[in-house]
Amino acid sequence: MLFLLAGLLGVVGVAPDPARARNLLIVAACDFVIAAAGLLLPWGRTRPEAPALLGLAGFAVLGLSTWSFGGVAAGTGPFLVLLYAWAGLHFPRWVLFGYLVPAFLSYVIPLVLTHQSPLVLSSAFVLMPVAIVVALLIEAQARHLRDDRERLARIEQWRAAMVNTLAHDVRSPLSTVRIVLEEFQEQATGEAARMADAALRQTARISRLAEGLLDLQRIDSSGQLKLDLAEHPARALIGEILLLLNLDVELTIEVDDDLVLLVDRQRFEQILINLVTNAARYGRGPVVVSLTRDGARNRLEVRDHGPGIPDHLRPRLFGQFAVGGPEGVGLGLWIVRQLAAAHGGMATAEARDPGVAMVVTFPATGPEA
């Protein structure tokens, strides 16, 4: 891009300076050749420092430009500094020091050949230190950023391995523990039954954590989810899903019989269960599940009648580990948002009086949509 810009400036410069049109076009052509080389050559198959050869070609063009215009170096200095800045962004220090001699010669030799005064020649001893210092500062900052990126990549690999371990290795023994606790609960009475019930609740919480971490890893690793989309009668689908829940709260369904949902059933089930469970856990009944048609979208709303959520918390409810509590870990709503996005919709929280409504939209079906 740097050489492409230089070439375009050379072409533009022909109009105000037609006497030097030939020289300008020659320099512009050289710039375009270097730009094409930078774009088209397979640099990914070479050593990381190989593109630095473009800088050497650039210095040669700078020298040609200064000589062609009789020693006028007005554009040479800034472009030389820009070349050094580009090198500092991409290459190690030895490349920058390796550029010193070619850069110095490309600046000085044309001035000597065009018989410039010692004062003009001495400008090289000001320009070169400035260029190398700028490049070294940029190189140092770029190196720190690359080191930080590599460290973050290692942390991410470690996190992914830890999440996979938790998600997969915890679930198998947890199933055995849950079965044993359920059998013990059936035979226990009094205080033992209450202890078994408490243990089962904590086991369920760990299971939710494992499932949430597994979904988090699936989304993080692929960046998207593959959906098995199909049309489902909305009221029947929502009713079937809510039958799976055993919540001690009043549930109300407000869905028209003629509405149809185009969703992945398993993922929609996950969305609805997460929202209804959250509403029952953190709010108060009745919990109202409604579905309405809003233009080209279906709007699912799960509302509780509890104390609500403060305004400053609502925008970050759907972040990873944004909120949690004794019964949750803060992954449920983040997963809801990711699943909604995978369907082409979105998830938001809206204030109600009383309570709060969690709203998820889905693209509607039918000719109107």
UniProtKB/TrEMBL annotation:
One of its GO terms (cellular component) is plasma membrane. Keywords: Kinase, Membrane, Phosphoprotein, Transferase, Transmembrane, Transmembrane helix, Two-component regulatory system. PROSITE patterns: HIS_KIN (PS50109). It is an enzyme of class 2 (transferase). It catalyses: ATP + protein L-histidine = ADP + protein N-phospho-L-histidine. It is found in: Cell membrane. Its EC number is 2.7.13.3. The chain crosses the membrane at residues 24-41, 53-74, 94-113, 120-138. Pfam families: HATPase_c, HisKA. This is histidine kinase. It comes from Paractinoplanes rishiriensis.
